[in-house]
Amino acid sequence: MIPDIINFLTKRRIHLGISQREICRKLSTSNSTVHAWENNTQTPELTSLIRWAEALGLTVTYKIHEERNFVQLEIIVEGEK
Fold this sequence. Notes:
The chain is of the alpha+beta class. The protein has a single domain (about 1-75), classed as lambda repressor-like DNA-binding domains (434 Repressor (Amino-terminal Domain), Orthogonal Bundle), CATH 1.10.260.40. Helix content is about 50%, strand content about 20%.
């Protein structure tokens, strides 16, 4: 699930014409970190994932199902559902 979200965020960044360097500045992180996320060699923490989505104009909503011991993440584009 997380790789699918990362792939979505990467495609969104490219579609918006935002460079990796620019997204790094918005997230206050290094270029190598974002590069690793986008190439699925590192997984961002949930807080970083949320900040990344928000920097691209997205809202992240998430639900935690404790009884099933997993986290369900859903990315919703602002104004759409």
